[in-house]
Amino acid sequence: MDQVHPKRQNGTVEIKTTGPDSEQLTEEQWQAIINNDSDYNNQFFYAVKSTGIFCKPSCKSRVPRKENVLIFFTAQHAISAHFRPCKRCRPTGQRLPDQEWVSAITEYIDKHYDKKLTLSILAEACHGSPYHLHRTFKKITGITPVAYIQQTRMDRARLYLANARDPVTDIALFVGIPNISYFITLFKKETGLTPTEYRQLERSKTTRRCLFDGSRE
Ligand SMILES: [Zn+2]
């Protein structure tokens, strides 16, 4: 259970910018932060004033501006200074329950399906090994993460084809599949139709619905 309740005033986290608990950032610590050096993980934590969040040195989140960094030797000190533990690197040591982790993974896919997305990219972004991510995802959702990525892309492609006028090559790009022939093959495997056939079918359905009663399903 998360028992941390940072004090909020008018929606902003009240943060001590200096205090007896935070330490001066050394060049060695700064290098550890820049290089996500896990060797330093039990030696210190760094908090970022602009975000109100604190991390382990190994955290792969975006490198903060140096002047915003505060150093703490214990997680408890960072919490006392009203910083929240980062959800990615879990500096307080709690592991995400599988369910929560899988929601974070699906959320990541839903936001990044239009970019290059492989199992290892996903594992890197969501902080787990590719093997563990694949297994956990499948256990919770019943499908593999790669299948979920493809399903998301095909769902979006169907939506675009039915509602947008962009050429099929552009739609393939919008859903993160720059290789057009691969896109067509995948789409046909999924729907039994080529993207162009699918688009024509959807258009004729819409026309028919409009002719009947002017309403949409
Ligand atoms: Zn972090």
From TrEMBL:
Location of the region described as Disordered in the Swiss-Prot/TrEMBL record: 1-24
GO molecular function: DNA-binding transcription factor activity; methyltransferase activity; sequence-specific DNA binding; zinc ion binding
Protein's GO biological process: DNA repair; methylation
Cofactor(s) listed in the protein's UniProt record: Zn(2+)
Keyword entries, A-Z: Activator, DNA-binding, Methyltransferase, Transcription, Transcription regulation, Transferase
Matches recorded under Pfam families: Ada_Zn_binding (PF02805), HTH_18 (PF12833)
Domain HTH araC/xylS-type: 103-201
Keyword Lyase carried by entry: no
Record bears the keyword Transcription: yes
PANTHER family: ARAC-FAMILY TRANSCRIPTIONAL REGULATOR, HTH-TYPE TRANSCRIPTIONAL ACTIVATOR RHAS
Protein name in UniProt: AraC family transcriptional regulator
